[in-house]
Amino acid sequence: MKRKMDGKMIYIVADDLTGANDTAIQYRKNGLRTATQVRFIPEALPALREGCGVISINVNSRAMTPEEAYRANFRVAEAIRSDARYIYKKIDSVFRGNIVPELEAIMEAARSRLCLLAPAYPENHRTCVGGIVYVNGEELLDAGEYLRASLGRRLALLPVDVLRRGGEAIAAYLAEKEREGASVFLCDSADAGDLHILAGAVQGMENVLFSGSAGFAASLSELCAGEEEPFRRPEATGRVLVVIGTRHSETAAQVKRLQSAAAYPVVCTRACELAAGDGTV
């Protein structure tokens, strides 16, 4: 089925492959044909645009210096801005990586007048209230303080009490704060309903950079449902291989739980051994 959206693309820009895929799958679940670039190859974009409505790009900039991350994200945003329906900057929900220089780079390259940043992912027990990020109910950091320390733009908080008054109140609040000079908004979200309200209120705004975890992306993607063919999960036949390429402690705990529950075999290897291609692991 030919993609819709008047030829405009949704682009996801992520700082690692896990985030690129985690965000892209939100759109695929709602029926949009989606592709992930494991690394940014601008020459490959035209072919991807022909078959997809969403392209997720792994900039792989989390471990870069702030200067390197700025340049890498600027290059990506400059290449995709002309046919973007919108750009979604995926950030880590616990604020790892080069969040500020990457937001600055994309806003500059894409000429975004505003950035709406919603870091919460309530489904994973990560919320933001009063600009404070909580994980499992425990305070992690003051995101407002963190951003103001290095952001070269004026920051404003979109508090949950304004958010829950709905679209008209949100639009009026954003307009008022923009007139006062704010261009980056840290958006509260205490639950999934807050993200749905936010997405519904802002998804039609132009020249705006959307940013956050996969949670905000999931709410935005639901507004695109029906634009392409419904997603049909392929039936698994035979054996299933699960490849896990992260060293995060939570992932290691999940693997242990999987082993205990289902007695699945686990093969540990090193990337250099796979790259050697000698047929052994």
Any key phrases for this structure?
alpha/beta, eight-stranded parallel sheet, 281 residues, 11 strands, globular, 39% helix, three-stranded antiparallel sheet
Number of continuous helical runs: 11
Low-confidence stretches: none
Largest sheet: 8 strands, parallel
Broad structural category: alpha/beta
Give the H and E element order: EHEHEHEHEEEEHEHHEHEHHH
Write down the Rg. Answer: 19 Å
Q: How far apart, in Å, are the first and last alpha carbons? A: 41 Å
Average pLDDT confidence is 89
Strand content: 15-25%
Helix content: 25-40%
Give the beta-strand count. Answer: 11
**What would the principal axes of the Cα set say about the shape?**
globular
Strand order of the largest sheet: 2-3-1-4-11-5-10-9
Summarize this, please?
The chain is an alpha/beta fold. The chain is built from eleven helices and eleven strands.
Explain what the structure shows.
The protein has 281 residues and is an alpha/beta fold. It is 39% helix and 20% strand. Helix 1 runs parallel beside helix 9. The longest helix has 15 residues, at 66-80. The model has no long low-confidence stretch (mean pLDDT 89).
